[in-house]
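Subject: complex prediction, re-run

Hi both,

The earlier run crashed halfway through, so I resubmitted it with identical inputs.
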Amino acid sequence: MDRIPILKIGAALLVTIQVDLHDSVAMALEEDLSNMIVKAGAKGVLIDISALEIVDSFIGRMLANIAGVARMLDADTVVVGMRPAVAITLVELGLSLPGVKTALNAERGMALIQRRVAESGLEADHAAGEF
Amino acid sequence: MARQPASLNGIVAAHEDEILREWQRVLSLGGTERRLTGREIEAQCRAVLEALKESSGGTEEVSDRLQDLLAEISRNRATQGFGVTETVGFLLSLKRPLVDAIGREHAKAPAIALRETLASTELVDGLALRLMDAFVRNREEIIIRQQQEIAELSTPVVKLWDGILAVPLIGTLDSSRTQVVMENLLQAIVDQSAQMTIIDITGVPTVDTLVAQHLLKTIAAARLMGADCIISGIRPQIAQTMVHLGVELSVVSKATLAEALAHALLKTGRAVVTRRPVVEA
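This time it finished cleanly. Structure:
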């Protein structure tokens, strides 16, 4: 079975979807990603869907699920590179992915995650200073 | 009776000149044809009569030539701005000259005259209906084309600054227009790699729940592409109506486009400062 590779870059995990996302592949990705977040202690998950041309309600729900799981494991999910047609389709399907952060491209998405990591680092210092 | 062909096309052929003269007289009496010159009217009348002569005379089968002719007349008149009455009246006024001609032809045989009169009336009525049909269809085509042109004209996406876009919306937002706005905006976000979009609704006359839903859809789609949205230019009355309707836009909303731009600049890490004006020596 095809599996989508998950790359670890610093505190972030990078997932680039370059094939048609079949349901089984999507479910495998969700499982792999949850395991990987815990194993790598990741603070952010970057999902690049710039090559994705077709979405259905299942894929939309899967993205929302991944975001939910990641949030529970203390990681932000950033979806980047969505095509206009895909965005319109998701909105028409009523899936506006409320828990998911978005960015135009991978560079900006990575900046978003790094900012969050930096901020959480500051917060940690604060907490250490107070006690 | 000396001649045998007593059917309608025969009568038209035999009395063509009289019918033509009479028809033109009726038309000029009606006064609806002032927009066309006498020669144009004559040409049109003559063409219709020619086509009638060719036609077999039955009401069901209208020859291709006649149909093409009707389509052309209706198209011309639709673009020239004629009304339905004027266009159909043109054809209906053929009835009287035609009936007169039948009367003259069958003066000795009232029964045949009656039958031919009925047939000719049915024929003209049928043609008039076809003409009306074609006319209305042409008018609808014109309206649809104009709607498309307006939709294209009225949804520009403007670049205000690097990464800041504005969509000044003017006129009522319906679902088809929202679609055009959304597509244009999302494509512009990709092209300009924009981070902020300002949707200015100063020119939107009313915002009801449906329009608000359309706005929210556009905002949601822009957010999915990674761009933040600001709404600007909500007029006081509209703001009141929206609150009364219970419509809530859960986005940053600014009173004017200027404030929205200032907010967008701030969000993208820029500031607008006042400095002493340069005094020219």
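The first strand of chain B starts at residue 158 and ends at 161.

- K.
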